[in-house]
Amino acid sequence: MIKIAGWLLLAIVLMGCSHKKNIPDVSQVEVSLKTIRFEKDFFSLDTTRMDVGLQALFSKYQGFSQDFFFNILGIAPQPDSIPANAKLFLNTYLPIYKASVQPYTSFSLQEAEIKKGLQFVHYYFPKYALPNKLVTFIGPFNSYAGIIMPNNTIAIGLQLYLGKDFPVYQSDEVQAMYPSYVSRRFDAAYIPVNSMKNIVDDLFASLAPTKKEGQLIDQMIEEGKRLYVLDAFLPYTPDSLKTGYTQKQLDFAFANEKEIWAFIIESNLLYQSEPSLVSPFVNDGPNTAELGEASPGNIGQFVGWQIVKKWMEKNDKATLQQLIQTPAKKIFEEAKYKPR
């Protein structure tokens, strides 16, 4: 088991911030973004006149209404099935909606952070078509994991952002879907992060579609690329939020970077592609069991991130698009990563 040295914490913080130099000024980048509160209108429907209310809803929210009822709720697109199923969902999830009203009376803070992130997206990728709408909704717990992006819209399912201590998250049913190491991230602070992660994934899909499988080194660097781009879009957001680690787990990763790398090398894991050997290092979890309980799950993204940072330091003229499109093996070979 790797142990963290307490006296290194200050150095860890400094290391974590050291790469954040020359952050561009994007204050003059114009971004149009409008927030629409779909859940307020939906849960205000008169359940004795669902047909009339739903017609008005479909008219007001053209496009998203279809996504909500047919894709998110999974209602069959037959007119006769929609009112009854919509009414059942409304009555079942009304307590969830009521729980969301107070923390999300205003969505201005989240909108401002997402808008700032979009300014950085436009700065680095001026040809990328930015979303121009934020739509908030309440959906089923077993549906989308919080945020989807249909039709130039960032759609945010508030049912998964009610705070880690929200009682429903502690139920056996929800814990079976979202264990505590996942549900602890069901907080408003993760809304901008997850919004930008969707955009990062969209950029990767269009610029350099890659498969998730492969050797451990490839998977780590591909995850590291995504984290590096996310960091560029959210340079002022704590790294703990972007990695999904707790602050203690992030401190552990920085303090034990050399030992983590040595373990991977000495265990002959670097070029392994067998899922049973690779998955503990690249999948989410309460920790990486091989590295001890204090470690974060998905330690591979952290290692890949450090390799990518080294490569970008050596290639300081490289753009984010070039980073995305550079093969993982090339990055590894040129980075000459050797943590101290």
Task: Give a quick set of tags describing it.
mainly alpha; 340 residues; 17 helices; four-stranded mixed β-sheet; 5% strand; disordered N terminus
Tell me the radius of gyration.
22 Å
How confident overall, as mean pLDDT?
92
Number of helices: 17
Give the low-confidence spans: 3-18
The arrangement of helices and strands along the chain is HEHHHHHEEEHHHHHHHHHHH
Using DSSP, what is the number of strands?
4
- In terms of DSSP E residues, the strand content is under 5%
Cα distance, first to last residue?
Answer: 19 Å
Order of strands in the sheet with the most strands? 1-2-4-3
Main sheet summary = 4 strands, mixed
Structural class: mainly alpha
Overall form: globular
- Share of residues in helices: 40-55%
What does this structure look like?
53% of the residues lie in helices and 5% in strands. The protein is mainly α and 340 residues long. It has a 4-stranded mixed sheet. The model is unreliable at 3-18 (pLDDT under 50).
